Amino acid sequence: MRTVFITGASSGIGAACAEVLASEKKYRLLLCARRLSKLTELQKRIQAQNPDCEVFCFELDVRDQSDIIQKLKNLPNDWKDIDILINNAGLSQGLDLIQNGDPDDWDRMIDTNVKGLLYVTKHTIPLMQESTHPHIINLGSIAGKEVYPSGNVYCATKHAVDALTKAMRIDLLEKGIKVTSIDPGMVETEFSEVRFKGDKERAKNVYNGLTPLSGKDIADIISFVLSRPAHVNINDLLVMPTAQA
Ligand code: NDP
Asked: Which among 58, 165, 192, 208 is least surrounded, fewest beta carbons within 10 Å?
């Protein structure tokens, strides 16, 4: 059994990864997010379908480095060896021209998508040293490859994730840790609602007649990436809805 640590597992892609990996009966799941109640619901759903799947959930805000250190230190002993880290927690908040943007939104995105990913990675690496096939998967985005109108700061954070994935691959080579970036286009999750601060109508209109990806589409791809033999690393995968330009 390989232990997978997923950040931002309370909804969307993170929750779908937990469900898909649980169904494969090869993984035990260490799940975190800020909303513990959603994680507990997910745990119940997973264990109703896969009674043997081991799941441990804890509340964590990836922006809080001291809490990350404390929570990882306080994990039960049998959860202290991690094979796979999926750096999934992230958000886009506000979609506006730079001249109209809210600096609090910028801080939230930079603190979560960039600094949070760095903090979690730094403090998880020591827990991966016993693993025979350690692997870190970062959720990047098409927004880490291109810039779109009013996407400014979110795109900047995902360009930073792209650079950090490349940097991790170089820095972690000596430890034998695989590093992969998964870069989706539009995925239908809570993401749009968070971006538009709860405006469901605006969130739905984003798809503009095209069929978006689902969280499961991305989770299936992550499962494939994880199933490659030890000598094969998929560095970067851009995954788009067929109809998205
Ligand atoms: P969701 O909003 O459905 O999920 C985001 C997850 O991140 C939630 O579980 C949320 O949990 C968690 N999260 C947010 N902030 C924090 C924080 N400070 N600490 C811990 N957890 C946090 O969106 P997606 O599933 O779509 O997004 C997952 C990843 O995929 C993100 O990195 C996103 O940028 C990326 N992505 C998404 C795309 C899309 O179109 N949906 C496209 C490309 C990339 P909680 O609120 O409980 O803390």
From this structure: 208
Q: Which domains does the chain have, with CATH numbers?
A: 2-239 (3.40.50.720)
Per-residue pLDDT of the chain (245 residues; tens, 9 = 90+): 999 999 999 999 999 999 999 999 999 999 999 999 999 999 999 999 999 999 999 999 999 999 999 999 999 999 999 999 999 999 999 999 999 999 999 999 999 999 999 999 999 999 999 999 999 999 999 999 999 999 999 999 999 999 999 999 999 999 999 999 999 999 999 999 999 999 888 888 888 889 999 999 999 999 999 999 999 999 999 999 999 98
Q: Which ligand 1 atom is the nearest neighbour of the CA of 111?
A: 18
The predicted model scores a pTM of: 0.98
Length of the chain equals 245
ipTM score assigned to the predicted complex: 0.99
Let me know if 119 is a catalytic residue: no
Tokens of 236: 């970067």
Residues framing ligand 1 (Cβ under 6 A)? 7-8, 10-14, 33-35, 38, 60-63, 88-91, 112, 116, 139, 141, 184, 186-187, 189-191, 194, 215
Q: What would the two tokens of residue 5 be? A: 């640590």
Active-site option among 25, 80, 122, 154: 154
